[in-house]
Target: Chorismate synthase
Amino acid sequence: MSHNSFGHLFRITTWGESHGVAIGCTIDGTPPNIRFTLADIQAELDRRRPGQSRYTTQRQEADQVRVLSGVMPGEAEGEYISTGTPIALQIENTDQRSKDYSDIARRYRPGHADVTYDVKYGIRDYRGGGRSSARETAMRVAAGAIARKVVPGLVVRGALVAIGDIWIDRARWDWAETANNPFFCPDAKTATRWAEYLDGVRKRGSSIGAVIEIVAEGVPAGLGAPIYGKLDSDIASGLMSINAVKGIEIGKGFAAAALSGEDNADEMRPGENGLPDYLSNHAGGVLGGISTGQPVVARFAVKPTSSILTPRQSVDADGNAVDVMTKGRHDPCVGIRAVPVGEAMVACVIADHYLRDRGQIGVPRS
Amino acid sequence: MSHNSFGHLFRITTWGESHGVAIGCTIDGTPPNIRFTLADIQAELDRRRPGQSRYTTQRQEADQVRVLSGVMPGEAEGEYISTGTPIALQIENTDQRSKDYSDIARRYRPGHADVTYDVKYGIRDYRGGGRSSARETAMRVAAGAIARKVVPGLVVRGALVAIGDIWIDRARWDWAETANNPFFCPDAKTATRWAEYLDGVRKRGSSIGAVIEIVAEGVPAGLGAPIYGKLDSDIASGLMSINAVKGIEIGKGFAAAALSGEDNADEMRPGENGLPDYLSNHAGGVLGGISTGQPVVARFAVKPTSSILTPRQSVDADGNAVDVMTKGRHDPCVGIRAVPVGEAMVACVIADHYLRDRGQIGVPRS
Amino acid sequence: MSHNSFGHLFRITTWGESHGVAIGCTIDGTPPNIRFTLADIQAELDRRRPGQSRYTTQRQEADQVRVLSGVMPGEAEGEYISTGTPIALQIENTDQRSKDYSDIARRYRPGHADVTYDVKYGIRDYRGGGRSSARETAMRVAAGAIARKVVPGLVVRGALVAIGDIWIDRARWDWAETANNPFFCPDAKTATRWAEYLDGVRKRGSSIGAVIEIVAEGVPAGLGAPIYGKLDSDIASGLMSINAVKGIEIGKGFAAAALSGEDNADEMRPGENGLPDYLSNHAGGVLGGISTGQPVVARFAVKPTSSILTPRQSVDADGNAVDVMTKGRHDPCVGIRAVPVGEAMVACVIADHYLRDRGQIGVPRS
Amino acid sequence: MSHNSFGHLFRITTWGESHGVAIGCTIDGTPPNIRFTLADIQAELDRRRPGQSRYTTQRQEADQVRVLSGVMPGEAEGEYISTGTPIALQIENTDQRSKDYSDIARRYRPGHADVTYDVKYGIRDYRGGGRSSARETAMRVAAGAIARKVVPGLVVRGALVAIGDIWIDRARWDWAETANNPFFCPDAKTATRWAEYLDGVRKRGSSIGAVIEIVAEGVPAGLGAPIYGKLDSDIASGLMSINAVKGIEIGKGFAAAALSGEDNADEMRPGENGLPDYLSNHAGGVLGGISTGQPVVARFAVKPTSSILTPRQSVDADGNAVDVMTKGRHDPCVGIRAVPVGEAMVACVIADHYLRDRGQIGVPRS
Model:
């Protein structure tokens, strides 16, 4: 079975294959009277767009989005006001090189979903990885641009914190840096190391994994739907749905397993507006599945892409042993472009929970 | 908002507070003609039951489950045959010591959901942690006993792999060992180290975290619902919903971020029955969100409980600064009892996806 | 497949067979701080309870409900305050006469779900009709008592408007009358006719159908989730889910098909509070799937029960021709007891939509 | 709140306003390897298309559908094979005459959703009725073309059975006739009466309602998800979601209320393949919410459109009293074009339940 919708009250449904005519999404549940511009969406897409540096895939996609429904025009061109009806976004695919994939029409690339899609469906659009390609994530990023508008004051930002085993130095964390290098790296020094490192990876036709951290600020306290719609459960589900993700953490994550109760729990002292001040944020902004009002901090691990130049043992659709290597245009580190995608997923989850608690209609907006 | 149901076609809905009259769950979607016994369920519950060793909470709960609907009687007492209608399971709470919690009726224990429940709901059953207590997980374990019956040949087992920073030696992994020590530890030597270590933690009135690994075997290939109902997304969501969980991994998890594409991707060679043989399982049994047929391997990290004897800075419901320490009966390592809970969540997810692909009625059963 | 939950944010999940140990429901999504009493629920159940007159089934069920979770105690015994966590309600079955049904263990009563349950599930609890019995509706009525509390000012009332082809005289409609006769009839004169008529039906061992009208007042304008969660769609789904229902109408219903546009549309004139006054209510309180603020008026038709004394041609589970007649205790007109059930379903739908628009937490309450 | 998805495993999500750029839908859950052609979809759309006769709206829409995803190309142009991934369908709007609606930008047409959309959302696309227009139903019809392919042997047909109070003569029912007149009328004689009658209605600038009957044959027995996902509940919900619908019936519908148990229940005698033969079909193919294997028969009542030339009392968005009459292009009987829409909804429901019981992957296909 397939399930291509995410969210309950703020729900996105995506469609489209990597080499199909287009990709798109329908956003259901945007409250009415939310103002946004085409530029808002395009800006997010541009952060994800391939072909922007030599460290990401060389496929050139303009990724120009169109808004097809759910809005009334604003005052200027490209300005929109949501009506509360479903918003359809769409991007034409313009730079498919299907022949790049013809070699693997019937071969299974190890580490890719080729084999599992064939096992499950008995048929697959192999071109460009079809539906299993990360191309689909462009629509999540587009939807995330609107999700960000649903919660007043919400700011969701992402950063790469590790490539391979080269981690940033948190003491040098500067959000402004993430816009100054091709890696969304908040630590300028580490960005330089990564550049050099990835040049080597790319030239070898190899690939490497990465870890991304997403921080959401301005999250109202009290969001989350215990027991099975916990805020962190939904964030985990959303991040795990991104291509090539193999691990999720909230707050201290796996490191919390090695902490004592005294060291891990975030102490409190009197605060304002009925909320305490927290002396730390090991919890990552979520306690008992509900937001505390502190920054929500999540991390996810992206495995290295399996689209590499090294021949690997595999099988073909007829069950014969074959070697597979992937030519064509690929990311040496797919984790880089996952940063805006992770931001979008977290934004969508928070928007969804905001509406579930506050209602879609009774939501104050600018 | 609250959301207390998990799953789509195999769906469990739980209810009940830690110190309420009872706890229960409704299992909707069990295919008809599945045979199970009260002993099947009780056996799973007994693995989770508190008061079994000095390393777990001393609350004595008989945790005797009753089946109230959804079955016809089998031949012997305690034997049941599912009818396809909802199965209600229920456990009476017998050993609540509500006065143990009277100190914290209006105090927020750091690291617990006390404060977030109050922020969200404005009212909470503080007794024993109310709905946020891990008592609720008993019902998941009960439901998991039935989930295991849905997929012929499915075996789901869990083991503790780390307490604090003391990890097992994987080379000595022996599933049979997990039944020989109070820790579900598959490595006898490490179990001994943990016993000594935890004695110290317990005596200090402190707590420590843990990492649990769940392995599901006999998972048919092809299960999972891309893009947003991926098998690993649902597993991540289910495991993250367990109390005190802060991290989830599938396969290599975060370690995959430090691997190259050559090292991470699982090579294949010709196999049987239309499926390849895999030369490794770094993927953890899931590729593109769909099961490969290999063991599904997931890990989750449990933070240390915040119910400790050390006084900690906090606030009360009136916003005053207070110190909070928790007396009463607590787990020095709540991760231990989470093992059967993790197994149950994974079993429920796999059962759900099995039915989504194969249908609830056309499912072959023993 | 089975699906035993109804609603999105205010969601009820029921379980239990007619002759099982008990029946119950879980109500998920009740906002916190809603006050209710056991008597509130019991009062609704008592309106539905069998054995109250010679016109309804003679099964004697005390139908005493228990609240098992989701509440803190109020000041007096039987008073509760919702915590926002799931509320479990339960009723023990005390008066099953399973041997009354032993004749039909393997026979299919025409017009009943016996045959379809066997076709679908391959196994059924035949005792008392098992899960397909109207016994399940007691839990809906219980849940409806709480649903009514969710929307401030909501009043949902039902009345029988026809038994067989004997319709009430709408000109004599008096809600107070519905409590004065065994039929929920708002027209005293017609109630007398029905009494005489049904005596004949009952003595003949026959049965007859009925039409019930539900009117909800105090419904805020603007509720409903176009296009597929329209208020009237959800009401239709909820009413159609009641046993033996074969038709649903909103407002003028089928009569609207014979009206001209001039005669059917409800004209408006200026009103108060941003809402118009309507000069009529042919729409039944719903326009475009959204409530207008006028009374929501729905009707449903209940077919005659097929549990009658006349032998009818049928087959048994082995495919042999048999005659079936049902002895035991039955309703000559099952529609009578459906009145509180219809009220409950409409109340649940309105509560659900109220929360979907206003949010479960930001809901003003008494 | 808005909710624009319908179905569980076979789920359609629609978007688009009457005068927006385009309208579209995403079909999630189509099993893989289903073959269909553009002509299959176009044929269904052409049955619904406006401007086909003087009895339906004169808006000229080519309604040419495009398939944008979810398929691999078949052998010939316009032939497709589903891959199991979401299928996006889209139709450009080409003949919007927005100025036709400028008069009512701030006026509320009685009987239309103008006022309720403004109350709910505070903003609406008034052009052509925006999202509340029946234009959206084109996408349901397109999706229905694919739904029909999911269940082997399924045939879903609709017919108009009444316009105003002029009913067909069932004794003359001939499905072939429905293609010979502009009314989907199965009774040639009545079609002639309707032509004459509607000419008068149209010339008067008035409108009239209608009743449509949908018959689904080849429905496997055993489909439906009791208690709250009953086949007839989902059909009722789907039909009620169609614009202007005010009543739903299954089988005998409201007439069943006037029948005795002896007359209403469908007797059975031994049949084949484990299913009985039924001596009648008053149940309309559904018993206890589950299909019997007999034709599923549903009817729905469509109210007269309120877009008429007669001035009616109303208010405007500022609360002033105004008269409203609608010029522009309208249907004197919107029920006519609802026939293919009703067929599509029933097809979608049956496809959904087929997959819920048989699984999306284990479905035999041609």
User: Anything to note?
Assistant: Chain C touches chain A through 13 residues (CB under 8 Å). The helical segments of chain C are 38-48, 114-121, 137-150, 188-203, 231-240, 261-264, 338-358. The mean pLDDT of chain C is 91.
